[in-house]
UniProtKB/TrEMBL annotation, chain A:
Keywords: Cytochrome c-type biogenesis, Heme, Iron, Membrane, Metal-binding, Signal, Transmembrane, Transmembrane helix. It comes from Limobrevibacterium gyesilva. InterPro entries: C-type_cytochrome_biogenesis (IPR051263), CcmH/CycL/Ccl2/NrfF_N (IPR005616), CcmH/CycL/NrfF/Ccl2_sf (IPR038297). GO terms for biological process: cytochrome complex assembly. The chain crosses the membrane at residues 104-125. Possible subunit of a heme lyase. It comes from the Bacteria. This is Cytochrome c-type biogenesis protein. Residues 8-151 form the CcmH/CycL/Ccl2/NrfF N-terminal domain. GO terms for molecular function: metal ion binding. Residues 141-156 have a biased composition (Basic and acidic residues). The keyword Transmembrane helix applies.
Automatic annotation (TrEMBL), chain B:
It is a multi-pass membrane protein. GO terms for biological process: cytochrome complex assembly. GO terms for cellular component: plasma membrane. This is Heme lyase CcmF/NrfE family subunit.
Length: 156, 660
């Protein structure tokens, strides 16, 4: 929450660097530029904390943005362009971790936690109802009288 | 001299904390009242000593005492007074001092406002508080002492990072720490209850106000941090799922679950051991957050290994506190007997669902934050876990939470009528449909998920209002009678309504951020930049001299057609001392949308890069957070929390209940 102070120290040490996407980087073809923007949002600026290259003002992010646009201009598909960047920087550059055995814990963990917790609760719930006296004892006459009185007061 | 007084006060505070940790606990075990009472006097003494230490460090900053290493590294004579003071916690050592100061503040508050607590429980709560204090004071004195001197002194200091010289960030840490550390009180109550082996509705009544107060502070702290990111970063991002952010979000999620499950303990005397566990986990996650931010483990697992003194110490504290309390829980929790039974469809059931989903959400964020660190530490591949991951895992978990927020309060305790509740939510359903269709029309089929998010927000908002109007029988009985009902309704009910409305408002703001319009271009002075029906006219860019910076100050006239809406001044500030540039964005809001304008680089031809955004509903994110925190405060003012008062005023309270 102190939003990546460390990051900012790094970023601002590169003071003078352009802020995020700059007009000079843009591609002339709007459709191609839109694709570049969309891909950029999923690629991490390597020297920042969880900031995409689209948002980052670090020099390295600028380089990757330019490289990405070069690939798109050269006719790469989105997947090919991303693969080009991943081949050079590794999976670390992907803000969405790829699905592979090392990340199964990450991707299936939340679902497993939900199932386990829900299952645990269901079992605890059943056990309680099985052991405890599920039907509470009926009201005594005195209790019923008091209840009636209270109900009348509420209505009144 | 004053610095030494502060230093001694800190050492004395450690000694006092050790006494506070040991004597009251022994007293409670043996039934020795005098020993138990030591808890209160030591808690107050510790607060006094920490206040002295805090004041001494502040004095060193304000007078620019450059014999103190901490002041050299983080201050400068040219710095404005406000930032000299707030600079005290703008660094590692000072922020740890603030952490322990707030801990002692909580301890003193428990000592002062606990006349109606059983003496043994109070003694144990304060003793556990003393243990935490001992650990962190040792940490400060052994690894992070802010009072170390350096002679001969340099002529001037190195200055505070310009990024931290901002009112939003200056007050962000105190609120965040009030939240983090405030949860220690709930933790102490939980541990004390485990030692005693007794949790009842009276216990829940004592714990809930402390939890609620901490939760409010944490809500405000997180909102301030995100708002700061929004106006500082120059493109309007406000949440990055960054580990440091997640570190504060985790205790918030579990703390939210805790305030809800404590209601069940209080009203229905059940879910006890779960609530105690949540109290332990909430503070444990605050400790994990402190560890993540303070150990340097986030910068790199390897940096942590190179200079391990601080990190290892906090890790050790973490293991002792979390391991110890969980071990105690494992031994004692089975003895906590559950009370009232309930059907799955009931108010209790809805609160259990809330707990299930919020805890799973917290587990998701926990995995996303710590699993990459773990993988890196064991030599696995380096991974990034960013927004796309959380959008696919965390966000779907929150959808049923929002659906349930509207329905839960309409269910009765023990056994609810889901169909009846849903029938009473017809207005909410209608509102959701109208909002979805309207948004689809306006955005011409825009991002579907964001449109559905808006619909969900409308459902929650109207659903919460429906429950509230139903309680007041608004529009069905004369307005005066509704007003009487509103006054007689417990404040906590109004608080709940406000907080839930706040949630809906925030969700609307978050969903609508997908509809933002961006225009970035190079504009020469005298030129125009169109944006979402507005025209931004760049009049001029001037050099301005600030206190410790030089600024490029742009004058931009915002027009709609020919009408001038506003004149704004985005700036780029250059701090020569640190050789850093910061961006002062100009934000023009009408509370429905923000115009967000940042000044970028100049080009060779005399033009300037202007980054302009139109961000619909974005201010609602923080307005909603303020509603949530305000709802918490309203709920805190409920007289039922003042346990002694409630019993003395039983007669009027009964009348109030009769009006329900």
């Amino acid at each position: 929450m102190r939003r990546a102070l460390a990051t900012l120290l790094v970023l601002l040490a590169l003071a003078g660097a352009a802020l995020a996407v700059t007009p000079s980087e843009r591609l002339a073809d709007p459709a191609l530029e839109a694709r570049a923007r969309e891909i950029s949002k999923g690629l991490r600026c390597l020297v920042c904390q969880n900031e995409s290259i689209d948002d980052s003002n670090a020099d390295l992010a600028h380089d990757v943005r330019v490289k990405l646009r070069e690939r798109l201009l050269a006719g790469d598909s989105d997947a090919q362009a991303v693969q080009f960047i991943v081949d050079r920087y590794g999976d670390f550059v992907l803000l969405q971790p790829p699905m592979r055995p090392a990340t199964y814990v990450l991707w299936f963990g939340p679902g497993a936690v939900l199932l386990l917790a829900a299952g645990g609760m269901a079992i605890a719930f059943r056990r309680r109802h099985a052991t405890d006296d599920a039907v509470p004892p009926p009201l005594s006459d005195a209790e019923r009288e008091r209840l009636d009185r209270l109900m009348r007061e509420t209505e009144g | 001299m004053i610095v030494e007084i502060g230093h001694f006060a800190l050492i004395l505070a450690l000694v006092v904390a050790i006494v506070q940790a040991a004597l009251p606990l022994a007293g409670a075990a043996r039934g020795n009242v005098a020993w138990m009472e030591v808890g209160r006097s030591t808690a107050l003494a510790q607060f006094l000593l920490m206040a002295i230490a805090m004041a001494a460090l502040m004095h060193a900053y304000v007078t620019s005492d450059f014999t103190v290493v901490n002041v050299i590294e983080n201050s400068h004579t040219d710095k404005p007074l406000l930032y000299k003071i707030t600079g005290v916690w703008g660094n590692h050592e000072g922020s740890m001092l603030l952490w322990v100061f707030i801990l002692s503040l909580c301890g003193a508050a428990v000592a002062l406002f606990s006349n109606n607590l059983p003496p043994a429980l109070r003694a144990r709560v304060l003793a556990v508080q003393g243990m935490i204090g001992t650990g962190f004071l040792l940490f400060i004195l052994l690894t992070s002492n802010p009072f170390l001197r350096e002679l001969p002194p340099p002529l001037n200091g190195r200055g505070l990072n310009p990024v931290l010289q901002d009112p939003g960030l200056a007050f962000h840490p105190p609120f965040l720490y009030l939240g983090y550390v405030g949860f220690s009180v709930s933790f102490c109550f939980a541990v004390a209850a485990l030692i005693e082996g007794r949790v009842d509705s009276a216990w829940a009544r004592w714990v809930r106000p402390w939890t609620l107060a901490s939760w409010c502070a944490l809500t405000i702290g997180i909102a301030m941090g995100s708002w700061w990111a929004y106006y500082t970063l120059g493109w309007g991002g406000w949440w990055f799922w960054d580990p440091v952010e997640n570190a504060s979000f985790l205790p918030w999620l579990v703390g939210t679950a805790l305030i809800h499950s404590a209601i069940v303990v209080e009203k229905r005397d059940t879910l006890k051991s779960w609530t105690v566990l949540l109290a332990i986990i909430t503070f444990s996650l605050s400790l994990v957050g402190t560890f993540l931010v303070r150990s340097g483990v986030l910068t790199s697992v390897h940096a942590f290994a190179v200079d391990p003194a601080r990190g290892s110490f906090i890790l050790l504290l973490l293991l002792v506190a979390i391991g110890g309390s969980l071990a105690l829980y494992a031994v004692r929790a089975p003895a906590l007997k559950g009370g009232g039974l309930f059907a799955p469809v009931s108010r209790e059931g809805a609160l259990v669902l809330n707990n299930l989903l919020l805890s799973t959400g917290a587990a998701t964020v926990f995995l996303g934050t710590l699993y990459p660190l773990f993988l890196d530490a064991v030599g696995g591949p380096k991974l990034s876990v960013g927004p796309p991951f959380y959008n696919k895992t965390f966000v779907p978990l929150m959808v049923p939470v929002l659906v349930a927020v509207a329905a839960g309060p309409l269910l009765a305790w023990k056994r609810g009528d889901l169909l009846g509740a849903l029938q009473r939510l017809w207005a909410a359903f209608a509102a959701a449909v109208v909002v979805v269709l309207g948004a689809l029309y306006v955005t011409s089929g825009g991002p579907v998920l964001a449109v559905l998010g808006l619909g969900l927000a409308a459902w929650t908002f109207v659903g919460v209002l429906a429950e509230w109007t139903e309680r007041l029988k608004l529009f069905r009985i004369p307005a005066r009678d509704s007003w009487r009902r509103a006054r007689n309704l417990p404040r906590s009910a109004h608080g709940m309504t406000l907080a839930h409305l706040g949630l809906a408002i925030s969700v609307a703001g978050i969903a609508a951020s997908a509809f933002e319009v961006e225009h970035i271009d190079i504009v020469a002075p005298g030129g125009d930049l169109p944006l979402a029906g507005y025209t931004l006219h760049l009049d001029k860019v001037e050099k301005l001299q600030g206190a410790n910076y030089v600024a490029d100050d742009a004058t931009i006239t915002v027009k709609r057609g020919d009408a001038v809406i506003a004149v704004v001044h985005p700036q780029r500030r250059f701090f020569p001392l640190q050789q850093q540039t910061t961006s002062e964005t100009a934000i023009r809001t009408n509370f429905l949308a923000d115009l967000y304008i940042a000044l970028g680089e100049p080009d060779q031809a005399g033009g300037w890069t202007i980054r302009a955004y139109w961000k619909p509903l974005v201010p609602w994110i923080w307005i909603g957070a303020v509603f949530m925190a305000f709802g918490g405060v309203v709920s805190l003012s409920d007289r039922r929390w003042r346990v002694g008062v409630a019993s003395r005023l039983r007669a009027p309270a009964a009348q109030a209940a009769a009006g329900d």
